[in-house]
Amino acid sequence: MRTPAQNGELALLLEVASTPKPGNVDRHRDLDDLRFEHFLAGAVGARDGLEMAATDSAIGPAFERAIEGMAAQEGDNTQFGALLLLVPLVRATRNDLSRSAVESVVEQTTVDDAAAFYRAFEHVDVFVPDPPADMAPLDVRRGSDAIPALEARELTLVDVMDRSVPGDDVAREWITGFERSFAAADRLETKSGPLPDRAAAVFLSLLADRPDTLVANRRDETTAREVSQRAAALVDRNAIATDRDAVETFATELVDRGINPGTTADITAAGLFIALERDTVEI
Amino acid sequence: MRTPAQNGELALLLEVASTPKPGNVDRHRDLDDLRFEHFLAGAVGARDGLEMAATDSAIGPAFERAIEGMAAQEGDNTQFGALLLLVPLVRATRNDLSRSAVESVVEQTTVDDAAAFYRAFEHVDVFVPDPPADMAPLDVRRGSDAIPALEARELTLVDVMDRSVPGDDVAREWITGFERSFAAADRLETKSGPLPDRAAAVFLSLLADRPDTLVANRRDETTAREVSQRAAALVDRNAIATDRDAVETFATELVDRGINPGTTADITAAGLFIALERDTVEI
């Protein structure tokens, strides 16, 4: 029987091992400067923060610790978004792991949690788009320099997430009761076969559902929509079962074009965690 | 900066991610009933035992805990031998991680440590050959039923290892001051490129040096020698750099024939740990 922190770490490892996961690092693909082993080290490093999330520690410091540990490898940012989902989910296991339990966790976050979230950006280089003008003092790239503005406006961590929606589908999970994370877990449970294969199929289905917000922010919305529509076409004809080569080709094409649907991978990791915790998937 | 327990877990993950690793599960190959994800879960589960090894816990109970955690996945035995090397190595980091430090660790093991080692076999199905007749009461497959015989003969854990040599090259590490584990670390440090690629090259060189004892025990010595000679031929012509296809073909052939040089993989993991601890390899 694994602990929630162990399941959190294992979810990160299973996510990166799942293949084909178009555009992302997976068991069969590296990016130029972000390799499979960076994700392995990132997951190992994140565990202490996940252990904190399972205890009485506040959510913000647990997240900051997870990011600091994750970033102790040369690939820099490997699992920032995934940990932003896993930390409240791990905490929610202290009751039952339900959507209402994790909603309650995020609703109880404080201004101090938000400050720790901002400090986390000092440990790692995360891609974020320019904020609107009135939010410039709260640009996460300012790190702890933004904390006074945060305190002046009395923004808690869930308030910060609320202001990142629409545009960031990791933040959207925080204000929708982790809707897509739980949907991903449900899908993992209804599929058969080895868990990484199921996770790859769920990744593709999530990508088909909604354009990936990291792609939209790094590239543009047109590209994000194109990628989502192509994933939907593959899902519609059940390509993973009937034409796996087409999915592999799509995966390699996105890597070659430098298009990385990282938000979709984050939600896949969250879904893996929920399914592991429910003990409804075997490994 | 990773802790010794984190480096121990990471060494297990990097070992299984290294490819091509002829005959074994690697980033690109699964066996029929032992898949990549089982090794991921095995590494996550082993961490608590590695944490114990880094503290005041006795070596035997730390090993038993590591095995119990490792075995909490459907592949059953994934990293038994590797953990038998990692646990004393993790303990040795409390001084400097040298051959004499780890020799001192194993020399201090007790009959109670040996009893815990026997109990570990109750958590997992490890392949071991039949012992000689006078050692039958101490057959590890008897698990804790063998403990009275162990106590009657006042055998410590290093005594048990001593009686497994020759024939088991994991046990041999215990009585040679971890000779090949440190040699593996030295080789990792002199190579260049991503760490998993280096580890695959070191694995092949270790296999070339000596026939794998797991292959000898599971199959026969002739097969073990043949595999080692073929590895040596590949190393002699620097095939990893000049004819990688030949190494990949050898890797797949051994998987197809069900020949798994697991002892060589165990020593590779130990070498990875030592190199990570010395901080002479980057990840």
UniProtKB/TrEMBL annotation, chains A, B:
What organism, scientifically named, is this protein from?
A: Natrialba asiatica (strain ATCC 700177 / DSM 12278 / JCM 9576 / FERM P-10747 / NBRC 102637 / 172P1)
What domain of life is recorded for the organism? Archaea
**Gene Ontology molecular-function annotations:** ATP binding; triphosphoribosyl-dephospho-CoA synthase activity
Which region is the signal sequence? none
Fetch the Gene3D superfamilies from UniProt.
Triphosphoribosyl-dephospho-CoA protein
Protein name from the UniProt record: Triphosphoribosyl-dephospho-CoA protein
Q: InterPro entries, from UniProt?
A: CitG
